[in-house]
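re: ur question from earlier - yeah i can do the single chain one, its not a big deal. heres the input i used so u can compare w yours
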Amino acid sequence: MVGHVRELAREHTTLALDAMVEVMTSAKSPPAARVAAATAILDRGYGRPGSASARFTLPSLGSAGDAVQAMAAITMAVASGDLAPTEAAALSRLVEVYIKAIEFAQFDLRLGALESQAGKTRHGDASGSLAPKPSQQEDQ
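and the output i got, formated as tokens:
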């Protein structure tokens, strides 16, 4: 039912927008009507500030696979009109930062494993010293 109503409303989008522009630009329109029309136009074009949380809930992020699902949900919300493109861009950046955090954590784990295999700690030899071993000083 909701999809059918949306479809019908979208058939009249151009006429409705033209009417709002006419009200907004007409000197005969009361100031309150002009402001209301301008607000409606801006909200339609850019989304209401802070309104994404009321219509869209970002899926929980716990893995890279969840990030893929989150991006799919964001895309679907834009397509259905529940999320403005500007809101989607901000949420997409959040997901991107999350993915980078996962990549960094995985890199850090792999680096730690490689250092352990080489018998070194993150800050030098097994003792934690950054100073070269006596045998290394002789080689230099």
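Residues 1-46 form one domain. not sure if urs matches, ping me
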